[in-house]
Amino acid sequence: TNELRARLSAIVDELGEIGSPDGTASFAASEVDTVTEFIDQLQVYEGAMYEISTKLEILDSEFQVHFSHDPIHHMERRLKSIDSIIEKMRRKNLPLTVQSMRDNLFDVAGIRVICNYRDDVYSVANYLSAQSDIQVLRVKDYILNPKQNGYRSLHVIYAVPVFLSSGAHYTPVEVQFRTIAMDYWASLEHALRYKTDLPDAKLNEHSQTLLDCARSLQNVETQMQSIHRDINGAPQGTQA
Ligand code: GTP
Ligand code: MG
């Protein structure tokens, strides 16, 4: 596909830089093998991302049918760009090999699941985690334990089998579960983080205000959740 071709040329550029400081890329057969292996691996990550999204869509529609309730507001998914993969591996002083990417990067495939209510976050996450064909590699519950800056979300890294001609390849996918309010907050906080041209005093003031906003949003969410529980009965799925 065109997208893959674009990725390929990005890797070729990158390898060119590494291979020859003057940028004239001439490739040994082993480098071409590495590029091919890299692209194959990205395709496996993409497959893993689709597997998990499909599972989430199936859960969402089951809830609609059985409980007349839509737990998932919407989903976003992305494959980490080649530039970000290389940047992260350099930052962590990892060798630029496919093996090391597989062993060390768990967020190459990422899905964000934006739910209506906090109960939905936990029921969708728990139902997905209980599925027998996938494994939970890591859980970080920033809803139970919010970050200092006010960030809240539930992060789970799953390993999901992707079936190729060579058999099952268990591949990690990072899933961030959060409510609409948490997503609303995280978007602005993310934008502020990359706004480096503001004076420090202004940045600090905004960070403090954002922390206040996080607490207010959490209160609003709790109150609305409780109205919703009264209207719809007990929450579906296991409670946190
Ligand atoms: P790295 O991925 O190496 O940074 O470490 P990690 O995987 O241990 O990080 P963690 O699970 O804490 O967070 C991974 C992702 O969550 C980030 O890439 C962001 O998308 C999101 N995230 C984490 N903390 C924050 C935050 O404070 N603000 C916002 N807006 N997003 C965050
Ligand atoms: Mg990460």
UniProtKB/TrEMBL annotation:
UniProt record, GO biological process: guanosine tetraphosphate metabolic process
Ranges of residues in domain RelA/SpoT: 77-200
UniProt cross-references to InterPro entries, sorted A to Z: GTP_Pyrophosphokinase, NT_sf, RelA_SpoT
Pfam family, one: RelA_SpoT
CDD domains noted in UniProt: NT_Rel-Spo_like
Extent of the signal sequence: none
Protein name: (P)ppGpp synthetase
Species lineage: Bacteria, Bacillati, Actinomycetota, Actinomycetes, Bifidobacteriales
